[in-house]
Amino acid sequence: MKYITDFASGFMGLFQTGGKTLISWMTSIVPVVLLLLVLMNTIIAFLGEERMNKLARASSKNVVTRYLILPFLSAFMLGNPMAFTMARFLPEYYKPSYYASQAQFCHTSNGVFPHINPGELFIWMGIAQGVQKLGLNTMDLAIRYLLVGMLMNFIGGWVTDFTTAYVCRTSGVTLSKEVKLTAGTAE
Hints:
mainly alpha; two-stranded antiparallel ribbon; 7 helices; elongated; transmembrane helix; Pts37C protein; PTS_IID_sorb
């Protein structure tokens, strides 16, 4: 009987700990995420959706803006998974590379910008808790993670360009490098 009650106590303790963690997030990280979302929506409303779309089209013209600046701005303004929608303004040839860069960026920015990927915030919080126990500053780690992530995400996007070129060449598929707009949207 002791084993059953110990198991039941441990099982309930797991949920009690989860509840305490949730409440601590409700007074710390959740308000920050909500305010960042409000800021993001305010900036988009102020700039206008058409200006955001023009920015995405202009960003497709060179490798730095395509895999460094556009993914950063998309993730910051739209969050995950909406950041992927900016690829609609890119030529078909660059969409796989943008996706590679964007998917990685949505993970490497949580420490500084938790609103980008709140679904994976628990991973960052676990890492941050270990760093705090060592007496280190979590923001130092978050900034380093962001900067290394931006560099690696850029490289990942650019390498995917070469992979796309190889696949196109070996399979005989031709993807357009031009944006074709029809009725205000990109194909």
